Model the fold of this input.
Amino acid sequence: MSKKLRDKSVAHKMLEQYRTVLVRKIALEGLEDSDIFQKEIHNCDKYLSTVDATVDALRVSSDITDNRRYQVLYYTFLTPKSPSDVAEILENISEKHEPMTNRTYQRLKKQAIETIDGQMTHIRE
Done:
């Protein structure tokens, strides 16, 4: 399975879990046909689509810094096995890519999250 498909499947599993919880909660409250339910599901889909697109753009970017931001996101949040700490993340990155310091990791992680947040702001407006 390609890295892109693996990333998508993790993201979509998260969406499915969120939607399942959302559907159960709304069903328990008897709001299945309400506008609130439809709006929440729609927003969930929009948010995930935006995150997927932003992460994918970082992954395929020809800019080395964007690609490093993707590596940070991938090894921090998207790997099937959650890392136990930053040292493990840095070790995983070093095994397959150029080594990274803790300071660089923290800076790139902040930038990557800000990139995603910037795209999410467009949806919220």
User: Anything to note?
Assistant: Helices lie at 3-28, 35-60, 64-78, 86-96, 102-124. The chain has one domain: 3-124. Residues 69 and 110 are 9 Å apart (CA to CA). Confidence is low (pLDDT under 50) at residues 1-9.
